[in-house]
C-alpha cells in the first residue's frame, strides 16, 4: 500500500542530485568521522531540506551505506572470464580501483562499524552481501567446470583473503593495496591455496 507514494517521491530526485547528496555524505565522513556526521550537516552541505534525506533513506546508516555503494567503481557481479583464476585476477583489479578511497572511508567509520548494529546491517546489505554473492557465483561456475571441488577447504576463505588484504596493507605498510600488489597476492597466495597453479609455475613434480 505504501510502495507507490515512496516510488513517486524517489523519482523526483535525479541521479545527478542524488550524487550530490552522496558527495556531501562522503565529505563529512572523511572530515569528521561517522559519529559526528549528521543528517542536518549533510542537508546543509547539499543545500536541501533534512526531510528530503529522511524520505529517501530513513536513517543515517542507510544513507551512509548508499553513499559508500555509489562510491564504488566496478562490481564483481559482472565478472566472468571463463576460469576461476581469471575471475579472481579480475576481482583483484576491480578492488584496486577504489582500494585507497574505500579504505580511508572505512577507517573514518571507526569503531561505529563494530558497535552500531544498524550501521553493520546497512553496510552488509549494501556492500558486503553483493560481493559475497558474486564470489559464490564464481565458485559455482568453477565447480561446474571441474576446476575445483565444491567442498574445497580454501573456498570458505576467499572473500576474507581478498577483502582483508585491502584493509590490512595500509596498516602494515602505509600504502594502498594497488592492482600490482593485489594481483601478486592472488598469484602467490590465493590461487595456490585453491590448487590452481599460476601459468609458468612448476607443479608438484617440478615440471611446469
TrEMBL record:
DNA-binding segment(s): 38-57
UniProt cross-references to Gene3D superfamilies, sorted A to Z: Homeodomain-like, Tetracycline Repressor, domain 2
PROSITE patterns: HTH_TETR_2
SUPFAM superfamilies membership: Homeodomain-like, Tetracyclin repressor-like, C-terminal domain
Keyword Transcription regulation set for record: yes
This protein's UniProt keywords: DNA-binding, Transcription, Transcription regulation
Domain HTH tetR-type: 15-75
GO terms for MF: DNA-binding transcription factor activity; transcription cis-regulatory region binding
PANTHER family: HTH-TYPE TRANSCRIPTIONAL REGULATOR RUTR (PTHR30055), TETR-FAMILY TRANSCRIPTIONAL REGULATOR (PTHR30055:SF149)
Name the record gives this protein: TetR family transcriptional regulator
Organism: Streptomyces subrutilus
Amino acid at each position: 500500500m505504501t510502495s507507490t507514494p515512496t516510488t513517486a517521491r524517489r523519482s523526483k530526485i535525479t541521479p545527478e542530485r542524488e550524487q550530490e547528496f552522496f558527495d556531501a555524505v562522503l565529505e563529512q565522513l572523511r572530515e569528521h568521522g561517522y559519529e559526528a556526521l549528521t543528517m542536518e550537516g549533510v542537508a546543509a552541505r547539499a543545500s536541501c531540506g533534512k526531510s528530503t534525506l529522511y524520505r529517501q533513506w530513513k536513517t543515517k546508516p542507510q544513507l551512509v551505506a548508499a553513499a559508500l555503494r555509489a562510491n564504488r567503481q566496478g562490481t564483481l557481479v559482472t565478472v566472468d572470464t571463463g576460469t576461476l583464476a581469471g575471475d579472481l585476477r579480475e576481482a583483484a583489479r576491480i578492488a584496486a580501483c577504489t582500494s585507497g578511497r574505500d579504505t580511508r572511508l572505512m577507517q573514518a567509520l571507526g569503531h561505529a562499524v563494530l558497535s552500531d548494529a544498524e550501521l553493520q546491517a546497512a553496510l552488509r546489505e549494501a556492500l558486503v552481501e553483493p560481493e559475497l554473492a558474486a564470489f559464490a557465483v564464481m565458485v559455482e561456475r568453477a565447480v561446474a567446470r571441474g576446476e575445483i571441488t565444491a567442498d574445497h577447504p580454501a573456498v570458505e576463505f576467499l572473500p576474507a583473503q581478498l577483502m582483508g588484504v585491502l584493509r590490512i596493507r595500509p596498516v602494515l605498510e602505509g600504502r594502498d593495496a594497488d592492482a600490482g600488489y593485489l594481483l601478486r597476492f592472488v598469484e602467490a597466495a590465493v590461487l595456490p591455496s585453491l590448487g590452481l597453479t599460476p601459468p609458468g609455475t612448476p607443479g608438484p613434480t617440478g615440471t611446469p
